[in-house]
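Hey L., structure's done. Input below.
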Amino acid sequence: MTTLPHRALTRRIMLEGTALALAAAALPPFAHSARAAAPAAGQQAPGIYRYKIGAYEITAINDGTWYRPLDDKFVKNAAFADVQKALSDQFLPTDTVPIPFTALAVNTGSKLILLDTGTGGQLAPTAGTMSANMAAAGIDPKSVDTIVISHFHPDHINGIKTKDGQKVFPNAEINVPAPEWAFWMDDAKMNAAPDGARGAFLNARRIFSDIAGEVKRFDPGVEVAPGITSIAAYGHTLGHTAFAIASGNQSMLYLADTTNNPWLFVRNPEWQAIFDADGAMAANTRKKMLDRASADKMIVHGYHFPFPASGYIARTAKGYDLVPVMWQPQPL
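Output:
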């Protein structure tokens, strides 16, 4: 086969393009008046994704995204240039960190369990889509039997109540980690906290104070709902808890905030996010959890992973990597 020189190839492409343009111009006038049969939608489809773990039906429910300005404090123990390069290598902006929110609903057949509750539309104007996405998924908030909370940061608990303090899930039993409750409800710890952290203490009280008698507290390590076992995953907060979901011979890990942005903290598990209360402890927990997921080939769900926020963890020479789930069009 003869290879054309670059100039000849370029000229050939130009001549072919000109010929096509002339041919199009010669078409009857009606050929130019065709248009889309329907106007552009102007919005995304509902953010829901379903898959099965054994007999359980799992529904990932997206609550939008917070676009946080990126600064040199976002990763506490890495050079800012390295952080920007890690984002740039994934075709992400280097001045903003997109932080999605995706909760998980577990239908066991007899119980409907919600792991974390989203922002309640109370954190960022680009977040707060969870209620609409639940409706699209056919999930009535009144049908939720159990809420299980991983930790008390606002993006995980604000969805329990509306802005005016009404319960969103009126029939749900609420379960929280006992160490989280002890920390955030401790007045001495709130009074000793930096000014920037006091808001989270006050927010936890806003959500829980008037329903404290209804909130069940568990020690991580116990089963909190059928097939859902809590796992101590301290560091992000001092009572941060992950969950293993098992049905039949299948299982998965709900990592919650064990890792934030995967391109930063899965690939560089020793990096410490600004949100981590104890950075060294969080990094140690992260490596243990990612190692477990990789070794057991378990599907994982990361609350701040790109939607549908689920995938597998693969070991690499440097650390780990996220392999997102592949869309499954076949019936569940």
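Residues 48-324 form a domain with the Metallo-beta-lactamase; Chain A fold (CATH 3.60.15.10). The chain has a mean pLDDT of 90.

-- N.
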